[in-house]
Amino acid sequence: MSAVAAKTVVSWTGGDGRDHDGMLVTRAKGYDVIDCALCGFRHVIPLPDAAELERAYREKYYAEEKPTFLAHAGEDQEWAELSQNDRLDSFERLLPVPRRRLLDIGCGPGFFLKTAKERGWAASGIEPSRQAAAHARSLGADVMEGFFGPETAPCLGRFDAVHLNNVLEHVPDPALVVRLARDLLTHGGLLCLNVPNDFTPFQASARASLSLSEWWVAPPHHLNYFDFTSLSSLVARAGFEVREKTTSFPMETFLLMGLDYTKDAALGRACHAQRKKFDLSLEHAGFRETRRTFYRALAEAGLGREAVVIAVKR
Ligand SMILES: [Zn+2]
Known about the structure:
This protein is α/β, with parallel strands linked by helices. It has helices spanning 50-65, 69-72, 77-94, 111-118, 130-138, 174-184, 201-210, 228-237, 252-256, 265-284, 288-300, and strands at 9-13, 19-28, 31-36, 42-45, 101-105, 122-127, 142-145, 159-165, 185-196, 224-225, 240-246, 306-313. Helix 3 (77-94) packs across helix 4. It is globular. The N and C termini lie far apart (42 Å).
């Protein structure tokens, strides 16, 4: 990663002939990251084409990039169910009772689908990774193996809620994915998006304090870098109205307190265990709503590790 001169404007023409122009934010691993005027969020250029990405995610992602994820995912389950139930509680509050059809795009190993089914939702998923889709099916989930796009979207059905957890940062055209998801929703249906919250004041402060590079910039896996403003604007432009914003524990607080987990996997696991303990301690003491209020307040301040929005189709 190299230093970037101030106020450098970079331009790149995509395969569809549209010009992506924006201020150069940083450079990493042969990619420029720009704050794109066309897209309204930060992304790498050049963007890989969809076919290239499809090959990577079908076979390699869980095998090479996340080799222990499937094996260890079960260990986090009690903690992961907190945010799964937060979302389902929000969906159920915002939708009238009979409307319980859910699609999870990029459902991964299927844990969210399993939780939703246990709460009475008719839940199905689509997932490009062969290994993850097989795992989801082993949990009893109804999953189409494939990439969500113009060819597969019309085969999936109609839904009252569409959920995309850690998907939009990976895809070359997030606006297209959001438009296709909108087409599958009934009137007043809900879209729930969860992406990393990047280029935050906490990250910038941790960088300065510990002389770190921008550790969260991870092309080619992370192509897009959102925050609450750019994520909200993406859904608004697609015809949604944001109803809720929340986040997860601001992991950068560990860095700001001097614990540099960015190059130390064991310390990273220890910090992860501590944030799980924080969330579960509140839950076990009966303060679920306090935890939710805390994370909603952080989201209002633009902070927290993830940007989560729930929006209604207008
Ligand atoms: Zn762009």
